[in-house]
Amino acid sequence: MTRHVAIVGAGPSGCFLAQALLKARPDLAVDLIDRLPVPYGLVRYGVAADHQGTKAIARQFARLFERQGARFHGNVEIGRDVPLAALREAYDAVVLASGLSGDRTPDLAGLPLAGVHGAGALTRALYDHPDAGPLPDLGAHPLILGNGNVALDILRLLAKTPDELDGSDLGPRATRWLADSGIETITIVGRSPAAQARFDPVMVRELGALQGVSITVEAAPPGADDAGEKVLAALAQIDGTATGPRRIAFRFGLTPTGVVGEGGRIVALTVTRPDGVAETLPCTALVTAIGFRGDGTLPTDEGPGLYKAGWFARGPRGTIPENRADAQALALRILADLDADPDAPAKPGAAVLDRCRDRVDYDGWSRIDAAELAAAPANRCRQKLDTRAAMLALACRTEETQP
Amino acid sequence: MKLAILYGTETGNAEMLAEDLQSALEADHEVSVANLSDIAPEDLDGDTFYLVVCSTYGDGELPASAQPFGAALDAGDPDLSHVHFAIFGLGDSAYPDTFNGGSAVLAAALAQRGATMIGDRVTHDASGPDLAEDLALPWAEAVIAEAATRLGAAA
Ligand SMILES: Cc1cc2nc3c(=O)[nH]c(=O)nc-3n(C[C@H](O)[C@H](O)[C@H](O)COP(=O)(O)OP(=O)(O)OC[C@H]3O[C@@H](n4cnc5c(N)ncnc54)[C@H](O)[C@@H]3O)c2cc1C
Ligand SMILES: Cc1cc2nc3c(=O)[nH]c(=O)nc-3n(C[C@H](O)[C@H](O)[C@H](O)COP(=O)(O)O)c2cc1C
Fold it and tell me: Which residue from A240, A377, B22, B146 puts its CA 20 to 30 A from A335's CA?
């Protein structure tokens, strides 16, 4: 009897889980369901456009569908197109690997205001996510709030000259937007001291290679652990970089207290310094990169035959490698539970998805993928389709010559 | 001459490459594949030619699955003077200072314990235009040919 596993979300955690399950048990029927017509989650829509090496992991995931027998069901949103309860009825095991796509917003007096943008919303707009809003006007002096790698990604992209984006998959709209941004200064503000910043030191050093920037780093108080020492060393290394006019300032240990608006739009962030003194940081926009949260549509508790994986399980921390280790452990747990219940009634599996219109299978995604690669201009490796309509037109194309 | 492909990985690219190499080589050779996490330095023998495939993490360090093996090489005093290996690295030139540090560290640690490296260390760049298998297969064929003459038909 075939056992059926549904994985909700075809991002890295879902894909690594499918990989581990099928490696251990090639006879399982594993279905990866995603609300987007395209797979791979944040590998496609979060990992920076100029970090193509990291996106190369997608080749491994393609094997899942091409050789390991996993099936992709795109453009199916669990909780909307198919109720979770119906999915659980139809499968022996259901895994929620749906990530955390909502931006955590700071709790600041004076919000909401125009000109304040979450990092997730901004990166989705930059990377042509079909559900993203338009790219916002950041003005000449944007301020980035946050001390993690997502904040660094945004800083780096905003700071790059057009030539430095060669070889990326940044789309024409975002390319024009960046080239015309008029950004003069970018201030990146962290709540914690520099030694506790969650920056990857390698990504800090990457900023030292930028071609058009002048970088200053606020002096850090001493007293760091090993990881902190590496971050401090990397910050010290890039401090003083002077290759061009765009000024980048790193500030640390500032506790945000509020925002100041004029005519409904942000003009400053107010903070408290470590010495207790209040300071007003003028800005033309605020990008918050302080974490992510769920949108509340899927339950956060596991139950019989219901599991969680990846960011949805762990919270918005951890890189792609960590999802693999976790997925391998979860696969063992799921397989043990399946084995413990050998006489479970047979389940129908993917038939429950049949009612979904415009479902995209792996061949459909392959047509989108091929079209995007073929459409890439000379200095880009891919040009993404940026609307669901364009994706579905390719993916759900039916053979008209069929009898 | 028996072949053993040993991989060190964190996100699975090296494992996928090891499996690709095995498929490509098994028609002509006896080939096994193992994760370095399942191997101790003492397990290495003189009759087998080892094809090591290893990625890079952190700041030019070994990937998670190779770390226990690396630590065992550093901590113990295994004599690997009977061992022959070749090594292929996976890395990403987006990390210019530490590009393919993992395979370099591992090659040095094996050599330090007396193992003989065959051929040059060849590296793949995840940000580059080549597919890993397109570089690794010619590498494997070249080092296997060289190892066959060195280890001799006897092995
Ligand atoms: C901006 C950004 C940049 C990053 N850069 C890097 C990096 O360079 N390197 C690195 O190692 N890590 C990076 N990370 C972290 C990495 O992306 C995460 O560790 C990883 O993506 C988490 O995987 P996941 O599968 O849990 O979630 P996701 O990748 O978010 O995948 C979740 C999937 O579930 C789908 N989904 C959601 N709800 C539903 C539903 N109801 N029904 C069906 N499908 C649904 C979504 O469409 C999505 O495809 C970055 C993260 C962000 C936010
Ligand atoms: C967090 C992280 C750190 C990395 N550090 C380096 C590095 O220092 N040098 C390098 O050459 N490659 C580095 N890489 C790139 C990987 O080695 C490369 O993507 C490789 O293909 C991964 O292989 P694996 O999946 O077998 O682990 C890093 C990748 C990640 C995700």
Answer: B22
Number of domains within chain A: 2
Domains and CATH numbers, chain B: 2-151 (3.40.50.360)
Q: Complex ipTM, two decimals?
A: 0.89
Structure tokens at A338: 């399946």
| pLDDT higher than 60, residue B63 | yes
> Which residue is it, tokens 């790219």?
A135
Per DSSP, B50 falls in state E
**Which chain A residue is nearest to residue B90, measuring alpha carbons?**
A53
Indicate the residue of B95, B97, B126 with minimum beta-carbon distance to A56. B126
**In terms of domains, do A302 and A261 share one?**
no
Given A292, A315, A346, which residue is the final one in a domain? Answer: A292
Q: What is the pTM of this model?
A: 0.94
CA distance A51 to A49: 6
Structural domain of A120: 104-292
Q: Nearest to residue B63, comparing CAs of B18, B25, B20?
A: B18
pLDDT at A223 over 70: no
pLDDT grade for A27, boundaries at 50, 70 and 90: very high
Coil, strand or helix at A116: strand
- A127 and A250 part of one domain: yes
The yes-or-no verdict on residue A142 having pLDDT over 50 is yes
